[in-house]
Structures are given as C-alpha cells and as structure tokens.
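Quick one:
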Amino acid sequence: DLGSRFGMDVGGTLGKLVYFEREGDSSNDIPDLGDVHSYLVDTEYYGKSVQRDGGMMLHVPGGGRIHFLRFETDKVEFVVEFVLHRCFHRDIRTMACTGGGAFKFSKLFEDHLGIALQKCDELECLIRGMVFVMRHVPDECYTFKELYPFLLVNIGSGVSILKVTSETEYHRVSGTSLGGGTFLGLCKLLSKYKSFDEALDGSMQGNSQSVDMSV
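Output:
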C-alpha cells in the first residue's frame, strides 16, 4: 500500500497533501508508483485545481524529501476526478487524513477511488510533525536552545495557539475564529480575486500603506 507515502489535511478553506520521496527514489526503482512519482516531483500544477509549493519542499538529511501540494477545499471533487482519470490511486488503499474533510469527504474517496481515509487527530499530528521538523530538518526559520516548552500558532481557517510541553502533552491557551477563511471571504467581497492563489499573487503587487489599519 503506497498510501504510507502520503498524508492529507482537508480544512475549511484549503486542502493540503504531502508526498514523501525517499532518498534515491526514481520511477524505475518504484514500479508500483509508475508515473506518479516523476509527475509529483517534476510538476508544479496538476490540472487547474492542485499546485505544488516547490519553495516549501523539505530535505530530511539521510531520509529524503517531503513535497507539499495544496488545493481549495471546495474543489475537492475536481481533484478526485483528476486522480481517477490518471489512475494515480491504483496502488493506494489507505491514506492518513486530518481536518473536517477526513469525515466530510470520506465516502467520496472510498466510492470513487477505493481509498479509505484514516482519520487522525489534527493537533496531535501537527505537534508530532513540528517536533520532527525541528529535530531533523536544519536551517529552517526557527532558533531555540531547548525544545520544550514552546508556543505553536496554527493558522488555518481559524487560529489556535497551543502550549506544547512534550510530544504528547499540550493545551490550547488561546485562539480566534478569524483566519484564512476570513481572509479569503474578504478578498472575494472586496476585490476581484476569487481564489486563494489569486489573492496571494495580488498581495505581492499590493501596497499595505494604502490601507488604514488604525483602530
């Protein structure tokens, strides 16, 4: 089952997919992956719905590379049709998934792709992933003397702030319902941008000095 190479989070605004490429992987070395491997690591856009964030790729020394893909949650049915059309699902039986979409779209993945979504606790996976990156991936945008405790700010459709005291111990200290969902909603109401990617591209050309942020 090649599902162990993948993980997915489907939130209220965006869906995120990760693919783990082991050190030395190639399509010839992994006949079961077929064209999927080369397509995932060499392509930036998959149809009109999915994009790979090349700048977010993580290199794990001695392990391999982790690739990140994203899509808007309201386009998940187009993503499923794209995967089905290219037969990318044929050797995947189960896939770990977090977020509300793990429940909402479970039947869609099962009926159309034959993939069972293994529902995982989002915050536990988030913390274990963050600890893994801090321990094994050097030269990222953080510095620390001791690993614990630390504050983890998770920005999704809403925002949660967690105090983490170990890989298995944490509690939520604050948060807000304002987040990516609010950002995208305001963009659709106040600008010509109708998608998350369009809004991000537009922000690169905008001027924050033109906005009165005083309260």
